[in-house]
Amino acid sequence: MKIFLVGGALRDRLLGRPVSDHDWLVVGATPEDMVRRGYLPVGRDFPVFLHPRTREEYALARTERKSAPGYRGFTVHAAPDVTLEQDLARRDLTVNAIALPAELVGDDGRFDADPALLADPFHGQRDLRDRVLRHVTDAFREDPVRILRVARFAARFDDFGVAPETLALMREMVAAGEADALVAERVWQELSRGLMETRPSRMFDVLRACGALAVLLPEVDRLWGVPQRAEHHPEIDAGVHLMMVIDTAARLGASLAVRFACLMHDLGKGTTPADALPRHPDHELRSVALLQQVCERWRIPVDVRELAEVVAREHGHVHASGALDATGLVRLLERCDAFRKPARFAEALLACECDSRGRLGYEDAPYPQRARLLQVLATAAGVATDAVARAAQQAGATGPKIGEAIHRARVDAVAASLPAGD
To answer: Tell me, which fold does domain 217-381 have in CATH?
Structure first.
């Protein structure tokens, strides 16, 4: 039995990046061998085990053969006769197909990535030096999730390019319908991880270049070529603007929910088939309807979806909030459910700021709406609603009338706090 450190740990060490976890490959062993040594079996689709002490994953060397469409359509062969090179050949990218004997890794997880010590049959080190994401073998085409993985790696390693032959292969996979076979859980898993990378726009650049974006997110793909106009801002292509917005969100360290809201906020500006969507009087409501389609298709988590809906519906009103009086401001807070969910409202404001700053020359522009609305919320939320409700009840108010009294009290508090002439 021979054990190797493989994949991301070696790639990241060779790039001078922090190593966060270790993946181990076991050659020449059976599942029974692993269990006898105290390893805990956890793999459902192929033999994976947890180390009895470190709880790190150890996978038996395996080969895979395509047996049906989609990412689950594989026949896995894991046996002692599978070699290291055969296992590395089934991996996605050359930069992830490098191995180091486990005996060269210290008990503390540290290791020397000396090129002379590495098993690198597919020249992953060369591609690391050349900053290229290249598929290992033609077996790449057998797993459509790899389209998303390449796009995600492009977002993480933003100075890497995708090899022309790899991009061509990805186009062939999309044309063959492989992207249509992707399941919601894997699509969201990869999209969410890509959104959290250093430069998420590159994920969408790659997906668009190979045709996968039109299959997975046609609502986003249709934004390219649409003029984007906004008051006090220069005209810009809506797709280009969207990419600048999500990169701004990454630069500001925004959460996944904020980044997804940034991606979804302007879908209504894209072109859609005449019968694909009910007609709405403004693009914000069209954006919400399209967003709901996306969220149903890819089973987006509820909290992420809800924030995106608020931003899609209200971002225009937030941008224009400097012109609102106290009544308009409180109504905006109520529509955003800001009194019950102030943290979500703060995230919505950050997404709106990213939208405003997502243009050339405006990357560092001030966005006073955010601070102003947070202060307005603090003022309105400071109203003693229990006392207002009791006073309204004593005056004979019931039901909605009590809510109206609270609303008026909040408006009065905000009005008193606004500068003269505001």
So the answer is: Hypothetical protein af1432 (1.10.3210)
